[in-house]
């Protein structure tokens, strides 16, 4: 199931990223463009790296009272599935699979050109590592507290800044991403990005460039690519596609 879903997402996206056990791909909290204020926003991401990892994720954020353009209470659900190259004694080609689900509540402060939101809730994470050539599978399941913080701003009419981070006590999983961009002639913003992620079993960081906030009707698209380094497969390349829509 994991592989079929990931393959579908990767085919649609033709993109990806270097994820690992601690990956929590979330495209951010940009306010919707256009006159209509969304009540629910849906963020999806497909990711792949040259080290052999591939992930797909979805985040649903809802404003139970009002809309996402005004300050107020927020509800958020995160889901993630994926596979990666794992470190396993005696099995250099071990493959890991991951599934993660979190439900959180929080609050968003919406300003004229910025959004700051924080969340807290529960997360369930499952990791399975199948050793190449062997039938033995090591499975781990953890339940823990998860927190998330997002900040998106347009400092000027031609620039953007976005920082997002999550932490879960289930395997001490963390993810952080920072982006800066300037308005592009083709639409959206272009600029550098940096991300770090990891948990009790894996660590990874990446640096590259992004083109984000491209508007196609009610859909926003973002692309990114660059260099990735993880402690199992070392250096490589990544690419990713983010998509955001709502209603």
Automatic annotation (TrEMBL):
InterPro entries (alphabetical): CBP_BcsS
Keywords associated with the record: Signal
Residues annotated as signal peptide: 1-22
Pfam families xrefs: CBP_BcsS (PF17036)
Name of the featured protein: Cellulose biosynthesis protein BcsS
